[in-house]
Design goal:
This protein is of the alpha/beta class. It folds into three domains: 82 residues, Arc Repressor Mutant, subunit A; 108 residues, D-Maltodextrin-Binding Protein, domain 2; 84 residues, D-Maltodextrin-Binding Protein, domain 2. It contains 13 helices and twelve strands. The strands form four sheets. A five-stranded mixed beta sheet has the order 4-3-5-12-6, sandwiched between helices. A three-stranded antiparallel beta sheet has the order 10-7-11. A two-stranded antiparallel sheet has the order 1-2. The radius of gyration is 24 Å and the shape is elongated. The two termini are 44 Å apart. It comes from Culicoidibacter larvae. Pfam families: HTH_41, YhfZ_C. One of its GO terms (molecular function) is DNA binding. This is GntR family transcriptional regulator.
Length: 307
Amino acid sequence: MNETFYRKTGLTITELAQELLQINKGEKLPIISELQLRLGVSRGTVQNALTFLKTQGAIALENKGHLGTYVSAIDYQILQKYAISDQVVGTMPLPYSRLYEGFATGLYECFGKHNIRLNMAYVRGSKDRIQSVINGVYGFAVTSKFAADRALQEGAPIKIILDFGPHSYLSRHILLFADNSSKQIENGMRIAIDSGSFDQRELTNSLTDGFDVTFVEMPGHQIIHGLREGIIDAGVWNYDEIIDKNYQDLNYRFIESDERQVDMTRAVIIVTETSSMIETIVKKNVEIAELLKVQQSVMAGAMIPRY
């Protein structure tokens, strides 16, 4: 009986801490009966969990009589210790560029500063990353704003919770050619397309509109290899990899920028519509200016990437 009691109280402490993470200092605490209903436990179990968190210094309360009980002090770092049972898990693109290395390092720095364990999985293709969040495999995903907006237009149950601004995701896209004399898409060309990437697919379809070409399904990070091996004649890819790896032998041209492309350069973090706890944890721990500062330090070579 005691074992069951302590197990139930421990679980309630975790769930109550998750609820309290979404409350700000000065706000009214939900009444015990409301918390009891939300957590599905007895009134006494809720009171025991609340008392425990108070004794740990996570929260301080002020009773204002008929007005209710208000939060007079709150320590989110202590609350997170009890709200997160293991670690926060997210996903982002493969860190093949210094920009991505800097972003990943910035995420680890932000969470590490608050003593929260972060585990990032590196998954190619924005569609797969978004779907993995929807399926509950990861708590959050890093994508371009364009990809997130397109997924929302298609009805994905997600929301953007942080936007890191232009050029935080990539600098720009380019059109690469296998033949050094090529300058534009031509009829008969074999064109790489990555259906798993909202951005690459959109630009590829736009640039080839009106041309008689053959699409070759290929992951974006294999496009350069495909060009050199003669598998494809052209493909859209990320300019950052060209610069970082000094691929000066490649023939490419910049793609004219527009509002759509600007959104492709903006890194955002998405969660599901119902992931209020993950949303709160990410927002309370990831400071945009701090992450961008780390990203720039990694890109400048002043900081060693850690991810």
